[in-house]
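Entry for the shared binder. Reason: the reviewer on the internal report wants the predicted structure included alongside the sequence.
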Amino acid sequence: MKIALGQINVQSGNIAENIRSMKSMILEAKEKNADIIVFPEMAVSGYFLQDKWTDGEFVAFCQSQNDTIKELSDGIGIIWGNVSQMYGGQTFIGQDGRPARFNSAFFAFDKQWVSRPNSAWGQYVKHLLPDYRVFDDTRFFVDGLTLAQWTQEDVCEPFEFQKDGKTIKISLQICEDLWDNDYSFSPTQKATEYQSDLIINISSSPWTRNKELSRSKQLAKHHQKFPEKIPPFIYVNAAGMQNNGKTVVVFDGNSTLYDRRGIRVDGCNDRFESECKIVDTSDEIKDETVTENKLLLALVCGIKEFDRQVFPFKPHWLIGVSGGMDSSISAALLTMALGSERVIGVNMATKYNTDITKTNAKTLCQRLEIRYLASSIEAMVDSTLLTMKMFGYNEPYESLMVENVQARLRGHCLSTISSIEKAIIINNANKVETALGYCTLYGDTIGALAPLGDCTKMQLAQLGKEINDHFQQEIIPNNLLPIISDGEIEWQFAPSAELKEAQVDPMKWGYHDWLIQKLTEYPGFQIEKLMQDYLSGDIFATEAGRWMKFYGLDDPKKFIDDLSWVLNSIQNSVYKRIQMPPIIMVSRGSFGQDYRESQTRFQHTDKFKLLKDQILKSTLKGDRNAI
């Protein structure tokens, strides 16, 4: 069969735009003589709509669009995702006393619903509802297993699609239905029991680093579990960006046809872009196309779509360019996503800023061809300190207080220019700084979007090189990019906030990047595991261990002191993170609605205390392996 993969840019809540995209691809698929066209999960409504799902009128409006799509199915089968308050024409009451909502896939052909043996209604309900990371499916939807209990029927039966006088059994799945490792029920196993001719999985599967490998590995697990029983498998994912308020989620697409061996045969781009691609289930040509620089593409997509969907009036974007790595990368990403004419760079120097960073900032803006504003804020700092004297607070002031005054005045300056220019402010914070609270509320924490907030410093260093390759010139100054080799790092100009004399950031780059990533990534990393590996010496055979040796953390007391500082810094800065802008999620543990935090102070476990004592005692013995 010829299947059109309708990889559309699904925009949450923008039903009219989503329907327009679907109509356009349906027309294209008909012109190319496709038998069926498949669209992503929640293609009509969008997936991340939060408590808008509790608006019954809105849900009913989304549901009403099914008739529009069904009328377009003359001569072609159409499979699409949408929300529904009905199943089989019947309404059910959920546990909250309200009409139950279903995350559904619909299947129409020749303006009629495609039937199953026990149902003439072309609807499949998602069976496995994720409740981890950014997902809250059971908060809003009823699963297919519960529906089966209500209806007393098998709602997992394949659909019977008629083609050339033959009946083709097609099993539908919705996203998580494929990822059944931790569930007691397997939709894929049911499809093999029914001897389905084709499995089609419609998804809204967010991209995070290496996600494309995880998808293929998951299908491979099913092939190992059910050898020679898995039919050709089609996976259709959304492209673009959606958000849940605090977390911006990007979708790479990467819709794929897998053959009976579980090998990728053909598919759409994985560059976060819409595409209608015709594939043939009889093809057996292996597709080994690999897209490079996906992190760069993800961040550009996130910015571009966030701007388009949230700020459709096309404002200028304002960025504080310090002459450091992070702000340089943010400026380059903004330019790549929106064009140079919509970006304004502002350098707000103090007496502590070096000529190196001031030159970096100016050269960056010149090469990106963006507007550049520059001025010292020393007069503002002096005026603020003078005002404090009028309140009765006399010098000398603590260094940290003066540093924070400078940071907040930069935030004030950007906010004022933003009002004048009617511009949106971008936030430049990276994940390590955000985790450790190395930022100032109302200063460098302001902005509408934090595109780098889920990227470590080491990832940004690599990103800087990729940006320079993209522009084919030195956009990110080479004096900011570290030289990394054999577990060692060398900076020509070390990262610094430049808020006091000879200031250098306190992070142990490389090691702290690894540690914070491990502490936040789903499904969770126990700090006790790191401590056990330290005691056994196993950690020193890893890349993290090489970083630890570089920073002298093979000294047990220094290791414990540093670990305590990191853990305390993370917990002490929760109140800052919950006030920061939404972050583009690119890992399995982004701050916001992905890695969720409480401001409660947590007690260490008894095991933690025991391991800590053992590690510290090993200082006296001089041999951790003797413990």
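Summary line for the report: The longest strand covers residues 166-174.
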